[in-house]
Amino acid sequence: MPDDIEAIAEQVFAALADPSRRAILAALASGGPATATDLAARLPITRQAIAKHLALLTEAGLVTAEPGERRRVRYRLRSAPMKVAQQFLAALARDWDSPLDALKEHLDRGA
Amino acid sequence: MGFPDRIERTVELAHPPAKVWAALTTAEGLAAWFGEEADIDLRPGGAARMRWASGYSVEMRVERVEEPAVFGFTWQIEELPEDDPRRTYVEFTLEPAGAGTRLKVVETGFAQLPEDSYRKVYDGHVQGWASELGELTGYLDAR
Question: What's the ipTM?
Fold first, then answer.
């Protein structure tokens, strides 16, 4: 996975743009580590699609594969890239806050 | 049977049929855009397989090889047990279009699926072909 913040954030946002991948991440977040077969049984997503999505999520660093035999490889959520993406959003949110604060002050003065 | 049996998609690729053919029919090509690993014995009746790091793999059987125009294979249906004999048939047709290729993919055989797995498999493959053809385009454009 890439090391600069912007590239990491970009991969996180691209990964989260797909509803099936959000469902996979949500299942891992709520149910803990799971195999591709477990995920296919729990979600309305085929095993082949799960395999493709897990490959992309691994590439983005959002999940890690725990070593195991074929078909028993378990995937675990990795939150570090999410935190990077969160910092990215927080930085943007700060920029949005200042004009809003200015507006609030202006309205307060008029009240 | 009230289910649609087939999925058909056409994509225009800015690459000549020979290059598209190689992406579809070689282990190197298939592993780059479709599976994460692949092997293929390219002749009618030949075995092919794609694998992913998660341990999921799909067995395919090559059915039609008419270079560089028609490539067909059958493959396992992922929601059925490993030893279930039912397969869907996928056929790629390549047609020159200017300097590029018009690639058509037709997958048939969904009507034989049981009701409880039909929707998941059919919808999965509709989405699957949309994303796979996107990846194929990306792979070819990057080369």
Answer: 0.72
